[in-house]
Amino acid sequence: MAGFTANDVFRDIEMIATSGGTTKERSARAEQRIDQFQSDLAEQRFQPGEADKIKAQLRKKLEDAINNPRNVGIIASVFLAALDWL
After folding, report:
1. Measured between alpha carbons, how far is residue 30 from residues 20, 49, 82 in Å?
2. Hey, which of 2, 26, 27, 47 would disulfide with 81, CB 3.0 to 4.6 Å?
3. Where are the beta strands (DSSP E) in the chain?
4. Cα 12 to the chain's mean position, in Å?
5. Does residue 60 contact residue 74 with C-beta atoms inside 8 Å?
6. Residues 29, 16: contact at Cβ < 8 Å?
């Protein structure tokens, strides 16, 4: 099973955002990671509301990354694609 915590997924997306490839390629890989995250969450038996809490944590991390002035261009675009996909 892949990691399903907000921190795990955010670190993976951050690595994707700063890796090589076109914006389209990086965004597609980030979207795939979000798909895996969603699948991992669905397989777990959480207390009611816990999966939503984890999603909200990831959403907040992605929003913070988008709003960080150091993340511009392709990097910001990849974070935005991941957030949109979430």
Report:
1. 13, 25, 6
2. 27
3. none
4. 7
5. no
6. yes
> How much is the average pLDDT of 12-23?
95
Burial string for 40-73 (b: 16+ CB within 10 Å, else e) reads bbeeeeeeeeebeebbeebeebbeebbeeeebee
Positive or negative CA dihedral for 78, 79, 80, 84?
Answer: positive
Q: What pTM value is reported for the model?
A: 0.89
The enclosing H or E element of 26 equals helix 23-43
Start-to-end CA distance of the chain, whole Å, equals 19
In this structure, the number of other CB atoms found within 10 A of the CB of residue 25 comes to: 13
CA atoms of 82 and 86, how far apart (whole Å): 6
